[in-house]
Amino acid sequence: MERRVMVGRAGPLADLGHLLAAAVDGRGRSAVVLGEPGMGKTTLAEALADQATEAGATVAWGWCSAAGVPPFWPWRTIFRELAPRHRLAAEQPAGTAADGLGVLRGDAGARARLFVTVVDTLQQVSADRPVVIVLEDLQWADSASLLLLRQVVDALPGLRVLLVATCRDEPAESGDEALAVVRELPTAVQRIRLDGLELDEVAELVSHGLGHEATDELAALVHGRTGGNPFFVREVSRLLAARPPTAGVPEGVREVLARRIARVSQDCQAILEIAAVAGNGADVCLVSAVSEAPVGVELLEEAATARLLAGPATDGRMYFTHDLVREVLDASLGAARRAGLHRALAEQLEATATDEDEAAGELARHWSAAFGPDATERAATWALRAARAARSRMGYEQAADSYRIALRGKDIERTKVMLELGEAQMYAGDLAGARQTFAQTADVARRNGRASHLAMAALGLGTGLGGFEVPQYDELQLELLSEALASLPNRDGGLRAAVMGRLSLAYAGTDREGERLELARSAVAMAERVGHPCVEAGALAAYCDAVAGPGHVDERSVAAGRMLAVAERGHDSPCQLLARRLRLVALMERGDWPAVDAEIDAFARTSDRVMLPLYAWYVPLWRGTRALMSGDFETALRYAGDAEAIGLRAGSANAGLMVATLRLWTNRTAGELPASHATAVDELIRTADESTVAMAMGASYFAAAGDLQKSRRFFDRLTGRGLDAIPDDCEWLEGMWHAGDAAIALGRDDVARDVSRRLAPYEELWVVDGIGGGVMGTTTHILGRLAAYLGDTGEARRLLAKAVTAYEGANAVPWRTMAEKDLAAIGVAVRPATRVEGMFRPDGRTWRVRWRDGEASVPDSKGMHDLSVLLGRPGEPVHVLDLVAAAGGPARTAAGGDTGPILDSTARAAYKRRLAELETAIAEGTSQRVETLTEERDFLVHELAAAYGLAGRVRTTGDQGERARKAVAMRIATAIKAIRAVHPALAHHLELAVSTGRFCVYRPEENTTWHT
To answer: What SS3 state is found at 166?
Structure first.
């Protein structure tokens, strides 16, 4: 193919050259070249490719198409060039579960893991030589390819890769989704817009086409007619070169192309029309079979000579010089001629396709545009096959589009196809669309007497069998589940057990609350009898929810442990995560904070492996709660922001509610209750449908904010319903805490006594907000406050002292301070009035330390120097580089840059090979062996997760500050360990008072003076 002459694009080419230089140096870059058709986007990309090849880079091209191609089509061609063994190149399907429960068990995390392998592969192939990726015609990209583009763009800064995409930027020419993706790309992605050429540039291009210098008048005329569009200018120049100089200049580029098409022979024009309907890159054999005349070399040469085809057939395929040529040819056809060609192409493709799954999308497209009484049914048949092929390749958005075409047919199992559509929408993140589809499916299944499909649709409303986030107070779900249970055969079965368990959850907060426990127990027993791990895990989750009140903490903990074992046996990661979430809340209520932290880490390891935002947001939420407990309010709010961002990507209603809860408790605990927060509290109450717990929260919050009038309105509504109206579930303790707190503020002795009586059996528990979005302290604390308010000073003293002890053990600094103030208010002195003094001095190769009544000698270490600096500056954050400098290291200003990846490519590859071996061994091993193998697998997943950042970007060890952070934390921990061996009391004090991070700080709870 003749390379086009490029004129007037020196500036854009220079911009791309700068990006290429950065990528060669290891600072990956990206750009989108925008412009109307014919502006030279491809020509510019070709010029860049020439520069890249000269610089020693590998160039890989991918072309998007609107011709019914499979998901990830442009990336497939790119990876066939870069990494032929990658699954995108090898077309390996994702695979789906087939266990008799249909479409509700697909692996929603598979696509996220695929994206990580893409980034990792790009890192590997660019290690030896830089890579340039050119993604052409982004306006026609499938949704899955656009999602992958976003992930790769995020990962580029750590890769030796330049990615350049070309895209039409006219709304009428481009898909709304593609333009939205371009708008939402980070600002680091350079936008390069190509406008029309200037007059002198048009003159140069016209002169090149004519073979002699163009006159000023002709150049001005061409410039005026073409707007400087290079493709139009080039075509007009060729037309003028072949016609008398007196001929006029045509009005538009399509007119130019139409005239050129009219000049070729009828046989040539006929094969070009067939190729245009078939799509750019049409198979020569297919076109020849449909054409009345064989497609010979002479016809292809005629089309190439007329510059309608790019050249002779490449790999047996015909490519137009520009897609505008194909568009003009297609537009010139009458409706009957076009529909006839679509039918002929479909019939021929059906007869000759070697991979029907591969051709299914193209066949569905042709049959959808064909004529004939059977066209609609044949389009539906092939669309269904295309949808299932796209789903197996994780192209969920494309699958959903094909399912909709399939549903136009009559000869399909309609409810099954609708269920598959709902699943595809769910995995594509369209939760609202999935809900609508499942509701429609249930209606059709009801009319057709398909009880099993009615049951699956009802389960789909709660995100499938696992039910990680089941909507509450959902009348439609309750109605469908009840109807499904009545319709299913009254015998053991996995689907019946799943519906029973979900119905137990749906009964929460209804007048059938009393039936929940027995229904959940029956579901667990049935699932166990039929031997279905996923259903059994879901039923156990329903059981835990049915006994969510404070009187069943131990039962829930045991059931969650059993659920975890069952889920691990069934290799069901979402159910494992749900089990860990349930167990973690029980551990919080028990106040077993070391076990809570271990459970958070375990949840994070599994969530990292699944790689879905639906699960990932819990980790920063819980870590924010733990930061709140230690009094680190800034970190707690930062974690809340992280959880919010991830939750928004997941479309999780729970995430928004829990993030608001964490922020509320963080600000309230910090003593920040501005009027602006009242709106957020009102919104929380509305979100909770003004439940009794919400009324109690409003009364408590506005009392603390000083708005007693508003507090009393909520309190009166609460007491009007009665405290018995607070449901015995995971929010019961929270509701009672709020009621008691408000009763004290509003002077309601009767309610204070009632709350105290109700809370008394749960003295040992901590009050946790919902699923861990906040902690209100221990039950003993609120009981102590109530006793003090009611005048029982002795009981108040006992309870508050017990609360102080619990807070000391948990390092719950804010609550300890509050409990001590409450003790002081009833005349109990909890701290010595005199200042505590200590010594921390170097003595040769040792340090002399003294704290309270103990004195000891500790060996010298860098960690002891770090502690000495912190003790001498209480309450003042000290940067880790300053600590390094104080211990004899380089000055803070000498901090360097990136020091390489956390795990190099060899280590990452070895870890991944071992992970594959472990997954196979787990699937084949005995239960005892599986436990050991699972531990090793989880460890490797945790290590790999630490080696990747957002969007699968390879993490580096960071700058010197990051290295220093890790080193100082380890030094201080080692020093405190050495102190513990000779002075346990001092070690305990330092563990509670010293916080490490990029800034370290010593915050003693007591008024302390150190002699250093």
So the answer is: strand
Which tokens sit at 993? 């008072």
Joined together, the tokens standing for residue 576 give 């494992």
Specify the higher pLDDT residue, 988 or 571: 988
Q: Which residues pair with 841 in a beta bridge?
A: 848
Q: Please give the radius of gyration of the chain, using alpha carbons only, rounded to the nearest integer.
A: 35
Query: Which tokens is 761 given?
Result: 């059996």
- Decide: helix, strand or coil at residue 890: coil
Q: 231 vs 271, which has greater pLDDT?
A: 271
Instruction: Determine whether 638 is exposed, middle or buried from the number of CB atoms within 10 Å of its CB (0-12, 13-18, 19+).
Output: middle
Question: What phi and psi values does residue 850 have, to the nearest 5 degrees?
Answer: -140, 135
How far lies 764's CA from each of 527, 793, 945, in Å? 34, 20, 37
Identify the residue whose tokens are 């077993």.
592
Instruction: Report whether 462 contacts 504 (CB < 8 A).
Output: no
Q: Which long-range contacts (CB under 8 A, 24 or more apart) does 616-621 make?
A: 616/646, 616/650, 617/642, 617/643, 617/644, 617/646, 617/647, 617/650, 617/652, 617/655, 618/577, 618/581, 618/643, 618/771, 618/772, 620/646, 621/655, 621/658, 621/659, 621/662, 621/772, 621/773
Tens digits of residue pLDDT in 871-899: 988 877 788 888 888 877 776 554 444 44
Concatenating the DSSP letter of every residue in 534-570 gives HHHHHHHHHHHHHT-SGGGHHHHHHHHHHHHHHHHHT
How far apart, in whole angstroms, are the C-alpha atoms of residue 405 and residue 894?
63
Token code pair at residue 23: 């990528």
Q: φ, ψ for residue 29 (rounded to 5)?
A: -140, 170
Q: Which helix (H) or strand (E) holds 835?
A: none
CB atoms within 10 A of CB 556: 24
Q: Give CA–CA dist 974/954, Å, rounded.
A: 30
Alpha-carbon span 701 to 742, nearest angstrom? 8
Q: Are 809 and 802 in contact (CB under 8 A)?
A: no
- 3-class SS of residue 887: coil
Phi, psi of 161 (to 5 degrees): -135, 135
Q: If 0-12 CB within 10 Å is exposed, 13-18 middle and 19+ buried, where does residue 630 land?
A: middle
Question: Taking the CB of residue 666, how many other CB atoms lie within 10 A of it?
Answer: 24
CA separation for the pair 408, 690 (Å, rounded): 44
- CA nearest neighbour of 478 among 533, 515, 522: 515
Residue 869: name the closest of 855, 886, 857 by CA. 886
Closest CA to 559 of 609, 524, 600: 524
| φ, ψ (nearest 5 deg) of residue 524 | -60, -45
Question: What span, in angstroms and rounded, lies between the C-alpha atoms of 420 and 408?
Answer: 15
Residue 510 has pLDDT above 60, yes or no: yes
| Rounded Cα gap, residues 973 and 995, in angstroms | 11
Say if residue 558 is exposed, middle or buried (CB neighbours under 10 Å; 0-12, 13-18, 19+). Answer: middle
Burial-class residue 920 by CB neighbours within 10 Å (0-12, 13-18, 19+): exposed
| CA atoms of 565 and 934, how far apart (whole Å) | 11
CA 421 to chain centroid: 21
Note the maximum CA span of the chain.
113
Q: Is 790 exposed, middle or buried (CB count within 10 Å of its CB: 0-12, 13-18, 19+)?
A: middle
Matching residue, tokens 């086009």: 4
426-473 tens-digit pLDDT: 888 787 888 899 999 999 999 998 999 999 999 888 766 555 666 666
3-state secondary structure of 61: strand
Which amino acid makes up residue 529? R
Helices 793-810 and 779-789, axial angle in degrees (round to 10):
160
